[in-house]
Amino acid sequence: MSQVPRKLPEEGEGDEEEEEEEEIVGLAGYADGAESFSDGDAESGGDEAFLDFNDPFSTEVKPRILLMGLRRSGKSSIQKVVFHKMSPNETLFLESTNKICREDVSNSSFVNFQIWDFPGQIDFFDPTFDYEMIFRGTGALIFVIDSQDDYMEALARLHLTVTRAYKVNPDINFEIFIHKVDGLSDDHKIETQRDIHQRANDDLADAGLEKIHLSFYLTSIYDHSIFEAFSKVVQKLIPQLPTLENLLNIFISNSGIEKAFLFDVVSKIYIATDSTPVDMQTYELCCDMIDVVIDISCIYGLKDDGTGTPYDKESMAIIKLNNTTVLYLKEVTKFLALVCFVREESFERKGLIDYNFHCFRKAIQEVFEVRMKVVRSRKHQSHLQKNKRPTPNGTPRMPL
Ligand SMILES: Nc1nc2c(ncn2[C@@H]2O[C@H](COP(=O)(O)OP(=O)(O)OP(=O)(O)O)[C@@H](O)[C@H]2O)c(=O)[nH]1
């Protein structure tokens, strides 16, 4: 079942006008535009690198997440598993990255950001490498530490990276993934996390930088922990998060629902949930439900000629568990789904739930429309600015 390609069809890829149009109607496309720049490009400030690092509008509209860490710590694997549906076992054959890879993730209105995967061996602090420019537009810096390896070198590198980045941009969220914990026993996991937490914070305190906040996550690509951690990282970059949480709280309290998640279907990142605590099992069940819905839909839902999409306005699913809980999934936007946990007795009032869902969906779309207006006006400004800049050889750009 899981062999079925699950990536939703890419629309308007490479076609700016069409992409723009989609955003206007409030349905951003899943632009899977992985790009890579050689070290040379970034160093020399080639046109692409120049635009990406410098353009304040592009980073405002798409917050940048940097994935850093020592060689073989698992950076590329994380990116491939979360955003490309690569199976964890396949990552064994990934080659070492020797270029900066950029990926644009704009698969939903709210999950709209860039990820930069930095090769482990790159000398970040080489004077010819302009790290200031890189950190300036960054929303979150994920530093991956291989917990199965000796992590002293990684900690030294983490300290150096965090202190430099903080000096340039104190607003960066520092997210530390203590990775590959699938190889550790439960006790060992806790001990490793405590030790890394202690050492990293001690190093900062020794440098008089105790005000820098580091968040720690235990992660592995072999279970859902990597998706959960990424969800939390992404949520911190979503400015509408409090509004979404509020809407979810109102929705569940008026519908007798136990728990609700708003999911980005493609990546299985949950972009918001209500304020009741999240437990891992609940989250895993939601991920499994999305997999089942999309897989079944891919197999039986497409037309004979293979056209159609596995996830659309009609998408919904009800799964009754043997513990009197019902899982209820409904489409919210082209790329977002709501997954709820409802008790069987509350589910008897499905009409009420559906009515409240209708109101919730409308409210989400309104939030979305506001965002799209902002994105459009920023894009327009960015366009104007770009056209004002002279070309690299000094000749003025042609007016549009
Ligand atoms: N056990 C385990 N192995 C993992 C995990 N994540 C990645 N790996 C393995 O770690 C190895 C290195 O992964 P990469 O993703 O290539 O590491 P990288 O940090 O991108 O390496 P560079 O490109 O050299 O910087 C691969 O063999 C992966 O299969 C994990 O969660 N658990």
Which features would summarize this protein structure in a list?
single chain, alpha/beta, 7-stranded mixed β-sheet, 13 helices, 12 strands, binds guanosine-5'-triphosphate
Describe the protein's architecture and organization.
The protein is α/β, with parallel strands linked by helices and 400 residues long. It has 13 helices and twelve strands. The strands form two sheets. A seven-stranded mixed beta sheet has the order 1-3-4-2-5-6-7, with helices on both faces. Strands 9-8-12-11-10 form a five-stranded antiparallel beta sheet, with helices on both faces. A hairpin with a 7-residue loop joins strand 3 and strand 4. The chain is globular. The N and C termini lie far apart (49 Å). Guanosine-5'-triphosphate binds next to helix 5.
Shape: globular
Q: Structural class, from secondary structure content? A: alpha/beta
Order of helices and strands: HEHHHEHEEHEHEHEHHEEHEEEHH
Helix tally? 13
Number of E strands = 12
Q: Can you give the mean pLDDT?
A: 78
Helicity level, as a percent range? 40-55%
Bound molecules: guanosine-5'-triphosphate
Strand line-up of the largest beta sheet:
1-3-4-2-5-6-7
Content of β-strand? 15-25%
Radius of gyration: 22 Å
Ranges where pLDDT stays below 50 over 5 or more residues in a row are 1-59
Q: How is the biggest beta sheet arranged?
A: 7 strands, mixed
Distance between the termini: 49 Å
